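Hi, here's the filled form for the chain we discussed.

Project: internal
Contact: R.S.
Residues: 791
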Amino acid sequence: MTPVEWPLRFIPQRAPAFLEALAVSAAAMAAAILARGALLGWGNAASLSATYFPAYIVASLYGGHRWGWATLAVSLALGLSNRMTFPTGVSEQGIYILFAASGAATVLVAGALRETLLRLAEARRAQDETQAALDRSERRLRLAQDAGSVGLWDWDVVTGDGVWSPTLYRNLGLDPVRDANVRSLLDMVHPDDREKVRQVNIIAVKEGRMDPIEYRVIWPDGSVHWLLSRGEMLRDDDGAIVRAVGVNIDVTERRMAFEQVRESEARFRALADSAPVLLWVSKTDGQREFVNQAYVAFLGATYDEALHFDWRRRLHPDDVARIMTEQVAGEASRQLFTLEARYSTTDGAWRWIRSFSQPRYGPEGDFIGFIGIAFDVTDAKQAQADLKHINELLADTVQAALAERDEAEAALRHAQKLEAVGQLTGGVAHDFNNLLTVIIGALDLIQRHPADAERRERMIEAALGAARRGERLTGQLLAFSRRQALTPEAIVIDALLADAEPLLRRAVGEAVSLTVAPAAPGAVAMIDTTQFEAAVMNLVVNARDAVASGGSIRLETGVCELAEGEVAEIPAGAYVRVVVHDTGVGMDEATVARVFDPFFTTKEIGKGTGLGLSQVYGFARQSGGGVSIDSAPGKGASVRLYLPRSAVTPAVAEPAAAALARGPALRILLVEDDIEVGDLVAMMLEDLHHRVFRADGAPAFARFMETGQAIDLLITDLIMPGAKTGVDLAHEAVKAHPGLPVILSSGYTGEALASADGAPWPLLRKPYAADDLAQAILDVMASPAPVATSG
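And the returned structure, exactly as it came back:
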């Protein structure tokens, strides 16, 4: 206990109550009188004595000056009433004056001491409160740093030594016991980024300016992480740079989300550019911010010129006034609107173009512009005119008119197919625009609030979810077009229909009611999922075409046991039954008898190919089941699809691995004609610690082979510009490096993969994740080298 703390135990920290102070002062006086009486006799107990001075001190320390003066006054009064006997020559009056003066000094000193001690106590309390507040502030700062992965650093420019916060050590994957200095940091920086970081430090020391920089660090466990570094240079009184302070923020999740978004955007652009219709995205002021290749080709301009092109320059003079009025009204309504007019092509010909513009909205629900689609309807208009002309001449020239009509009808069917493709592409573009809105909005919020860990996690999950939904949408479109290879697998039918339901509802539209009633929980069939989805889509679309506006379709499932001969052409056994009921016009017996014949259709010209139900029949028979139809004119139709039940347990998707599967570091030649895809795959391979050599096509591949560089693996795209395919390049590489492992890769389907048939190397289908690529490399490196014949 300090000299200050000891007396404070007996001094109240507040003004004492009157009776309390009186009791303490009286007790002190009584103690002094009792002590004097006990030692000098009770006759002199109340006389003036030095024994009163402790009482003055106690009263002054406890109650303050006023109680010290009160005690002094009482003692003087008692002393005067109990006079002492003094030796001859001693002034009694002087003794009393001297005693009063000494008592007064004691009271003054004791009272001042009390005030001083109280002030010291108050200062100590203030200091303790300040320290406590400081400790709370430091705890909050540490929590904020941990939540936002913000590490602090302080670097001495002269010595090179520094101080790192615990969070910075964590961002580097290090123990806090490691020395904190620039050399330690540079040793951990990815070799490809090390020079960039070193140059930033050199500029900071020379110019006193440290620019923000993002770079990769390699943790001791081999994993790669991204850091964002920001700092400020400090100078001494002479202006010399002596210190640098700043922060390092772990932005690995944001970078990974950015790569996912870039891959999703690349898929969207590839889909948009492959569409045979004009697509665009505009801002609120009408300025285009994206157009596809068909749009650019129609204008015969560059991409940048197409973004700023004024379409009034191509409009037919007779259509300008009408189109401008309709466009202004449509954009003002912020609703779906349609325009149709004549536009000149690059060779001066006039073509009828029909466009659809639909509003789009940002992450906060605010209007941000339109997404549009347009297609050429000249052939349809011409075909309609030709049909009218043919009908007028039919009486005079029957045979010639019939021939012309056939040609016109063929042209009309072609135009209607293009229009259908355009409408489907518009719907897909709309869906992708919604997905991109989620992704772009999520990344924007992450960039605005990088330290908000909770929001960052939610936004990253939203962006990744949207990117995966885009991948599923692409797969459903491929299934609908029957471009996937047959791959039977154990599938829970009800679960598969639940996934396909959104696309089915989009195909049916809003004019017809669609009810989905699954009643076969857990029932499994060995089927090709894409063929099954295509079969169900064909049944639902046929039902839609058969019912009038306001009609209904019911899609239901169940399980059943069929006896021999119960359903024609279907053997006895356990089945999963998928039934599509409609309230349409129905069919007579003759029609039902032919309904599965290829190319047989009861629809109008241009409304159907006659292949839908034949595909359903072929799929069911190929899967070991069959199809039956119950229908009558005016009674609607019920189509029952029977698929054999399977006891095989469906494969359960493995949870995402915590880290990529890794093997030994390899020298890999990557042949990819799409630069952005090549960049992404190269980053995946480098993340797996492989050394990557790039070739953006067959000519670049040939130049690389001439160098004689040793390689351990070839990864090549299957389809690329020019006469050679990836299979041809693989044969050349294996001839130069016997036994070289090869992985073929492609995003194409169907006939485009014919060149890979019979090739002895595995095919990795796009899109794929880094885990898929890592596993493919492990598999091909673990397999014996195939024997490749000359290609």
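Let me know if anything looks off before we file it.
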